[in-house]
Amino acid sequence: LQGDSRKLEDASAYLSLPWERNVPEPKLPSGSSFRVSGAAAALAPSSRDSFQISTVVCSTKLTQNVNLLGLLKWRSKPSLLSGNLQKLMNVDGGEVIKFLQDTLDALFSIMMEHSDTDVYDTLVFDALVFIVRLVADRKFQHFNTVLEAYIRQHFSATLAYK
């Protein structure tokens, strides 16, 4: 924008302007007049200056993968738990590894909270084997220390010791 710097100090002056440079001016009925008043009259889009903003959404706490997110937030929709446990095997290994501790926490919580039934035992066991295989893969072998640290320092599922 080109304009008087004193007028630019008032945010409402430039925030009310069109968001793109080539916005057609409103059509007015013949015989009517239109006058721009206030701070916006002193502002004009620059014909040679422009910029573009692009963003990438990234979270280090929650995944964008629907299948993994379904497992991590399993308590919100417990009716989908069996399907979410099965879908874990289809999640990209890199995504599971990024959320290794959260995934293991979810699996052991499922095991602890459903200890009175064996409905999820095989599914949780298969998911744990899947994760151990991932960590054993040469591609993710540097996460072996992360898994060992989890077992030594964070693991507390007493019913899972069996």
Automatic annotation (TrEMBL):
Domain Dedicator of cytokinesis TPR repeats region residues, every copy: 78-162
InterPro entries for this protein: C2_domain_sf (IPR035892), DOCK (IPR026791), TPR_DOCK (IPR056372)
Pfam families: TPR_DOCK (PF23554)
GO cellular component term of the entry, any: plasma membrane
Residues in the signal sequence: none
GO molecular function annotations of the record: guanyl-nucleotide exchange factor activity; small GTPase binding
Domain of life: Eukaryota
GO biological process: cell migration; myoblast fusion; small GTPase-mediated signal transduction
Designated name of the protein: DOCK2 protein
